[in-house]
Amino acid sequence: MSQSDLLVITSASGKQATHLLPFLPSSLRLRLICHSESSADRLRSLHPNAEVLTGDLNSPSFCASILHNATALYHIGPPFHPFETTIGLALVHAASTERGKRNGRFRHFVYSSVLHSSIRKMLNHDCKRYVEEALLESGVPYTILQPTHFMEMIPLAKLAQEQGDKVVFPAKWDPSVGFSFVALKDFGEAGAKVLREGEKHYSASYEICGTGSVTYNEVMRIVGQNIGKDVVVKQVGLQEAADGFMKMMSGGSEEVDPYTRDAAERMLLYYNRRGLVGNTNVLEWLLGRKPTSVVKWVEEQVGKGR
What we know:
Blueprint: E1 6-9, H1 15-20, E2 29-34, H2 37-46, E3 51-54, H3 60-66, E4 72-76, H4 84-100, E5 108-112, H5 123-138, E6 142-147, E7 149-150, H6 156-161, E8 166-171, E9 178-179, E10 181-182, H7 184-197, E11 204-208, E12 214-215, H8 216-227, E13 230-235, H9 238-250, H10 258-274, H11 281-287, H12 294-305
Parallel strand pairs: 1-2, 1-4, 2-3, 4-5, 5-6, 6-11, 7-10, 8-13
Antiparallel strand pairs: 9-12
Helix pairs in contact: 3-4, 4-5, 8-12, 9-10
């Protein structure tokens, strides 16, 4: 990407974008999209040279407006949102329309999807499958990034701050089931590389995993060793797990769309039996180094907190 290019980033105040932005060229023109004015104010303070817009991505006209004169889009869908698929499809249509204009400059749609989007049993995976299909058929140059379980889901700070030498980690699924993890900073670095190199990554779908299969029992042993506490893993029931997940997703609000709860419960049931595991080769190739391991991530986070 060059200085004249304009990159649009959706969900720009979220965790994914927060870890993507530091890896982008400082001279790059940015149009950052968020939902609330409080998020917009924070983005403007952090990125004073960026154009920051708020609006409803469920509106096709708004989707079209944010891509006006844009060169590329990095789309991060709102997780567990009842209209996540609708939003993605609207943005694919808007990108296709923008690219088809006589003086259209649009040339790259980077979609942050999910590892194994073909798993229909999980609504939060299945909804992304339709957006991927639309991208494949749109004629718009695209790259699909499929990240696994983020390491930032590990409640390291909370466990470290609890009083006593023994603390309890309430596992929302069977802690002996394996997962692949990826650090958000690694995902952000890989995403920025895809954007910078552009055409080299057209028509590609990349599974993004930083580790092989690691259980939460293993993760909590690593956490305990680094915070100097005995972390006891205790699995909670589905109802309690779903309630906790909903509280995390809604920021404590009790008003949750039924679709969101359905998607969360299906995910919890799936994770409890099968986990989510992928391969690290693609991310290692993109980064040009070994991805961050759980051990290294925990050590880094504990170091930052000292």
